[in-house]
Amino acid sequence: MYAEFYKLSGRPFQLTPDPRFYFDSATHKKAMAYLTYGLAQGEGFIIITGDIGAGKTTLVGHLFDELDREQYVAAKVVTTQLGADDLLRLVASGFGISTEGADKALLLQRIHRFLVNRYHEGKRALLIVDEAQNLPTAALEELRMLSNFQEGDHALLQSFLLGQPEFREKWAHDPDLEQLRQRVIATHHLEPMNREETEGYIKHRLELVGWKGDPEFTKDAFDRIHDYADGVPRRLNTLMSRVLLLGAIEELHKITGETVEEVIDDLERDNRATAKSRADAARTGAELQAIKGAMEEAQAGYKANGTRLDDTTLSEILRRLDVLEEYVRMHDETIKQALDLASRWFEECGGADE
């Protein structure tokens, strides 16, 4: 909707990482220099860390967009709490290698053969592991073992590890990762953007979709945007999408600090509703566990000696069921409110700026 109203060719603040919108802030410029240096070395690990939404994926995506696809073959793995063998399967799948019926030894053989074949074709293999903070030490060790694959004195695989700040601490201090540390050839931690960079980031993205100054942003609007988002790209994107949507709905051609504050208030209300929903769900789960425990205990007593529920235990279970029913009712109301909000949002957006 807002793209149509402001005559933009697309949505500049989508949450999905898009290398086309890469912005060269000071921290991203430094990170790119490290990445370029590491890539030139042709081996080992390159590690990029940063807070949630700091732009790690967009950064690496921008780097790869600059690469000659005839010279590189790349695979990307987004990790959860994976074991070492599961990670190997993801790596193999990322490169298009069959994992069917393969145990660990066969997987390693297939990966090695694939890498050797690419080397003889004159291509370098790159592996991007996103959300690396989720990997246990054993899985990181498997990645380190893959870095040992060589053909002559040439490494067959180079890996990029992207992770949140806790991964920075893990790889730097875990005594079991000493051998991996010795293979890290470049690393950088992405910092938030400052006030001037935040303004530059917003204008850069708008200009890429044909912005000609409509809407106009006042100085206090940029100040309030930076204060709220704290220079973190994903938070900026979330806020700016809502600001532009409100601007389009109210047909504003000037965005002021007051406009931004109104959107922030809406976001905070949404966040509180989400937090309440999660708390209600957690309490519901706790009550379910308590009821289950009481009933299992009663069942065990009955099986052991035929003892039936006493009045006190039965009353407690019934009380907890009443509490659970109330939590479910409250949770249903929260879900209904969320669905109503989503429905209104869809009607307002209407897919017009897809």
Explain what this protein looks like in three dimensions.
The protein is of the alpha/beta class and 354 residues long. It folds into two domains: 165 residues, P-loop containing nucleotide triphosphate hydrolases (Rossmann fold), CATH 3.40.50; 144 residues. 60% of the residues lie in helices and 12% in strands. The protein is built from 13 helices and nine strands. The strands form three sheets. A five-stranded parallel sheet has the order 2-3-6-1-7, with helices on both faces. Strand 4 and strand 5 form a beta hairpin. The N and C termini lie close together (9 Å). The C terminus is likely disordered.
CATH topology of the largest domain: Rossmann fold
* Helix and strand sequence: HHEHEHHEHEEEHHEHEHHEHH
- Major β-sheet strand ordering: 2-3-6-1-7
Oligomeric description of these chains = single chain
Q: Just give the CATH class of the largest domain.
A: Alpha Beta
CA(first)-CA(last) distance: 9 Å
Amount of beta strand: 5-15%
**Uncertain segments of ≥5 residues (pLDDT<50)?**
348-354
Mean pLDDT: 83
Question: How many separate helices?
Answer: 13
Specify the biggest β-sheet.
5 strands, parallel
Q: From the alpha-carbon coordinates, what is the Rg to the nearest angstrom? A: 26 Å
Class by SSE composition: alpha/beta
The CATH superfamily name of the largest domain is P-loop containing nucleotide triphosphate hydrolases
Number of strands: 9
Task: Tell the overall outline.
Answer: flat
CATH architecture of the largest domain: 3-Layer(aba) Sandwich
Helical fraction equals 55-70%
Tally of individual domains: 2
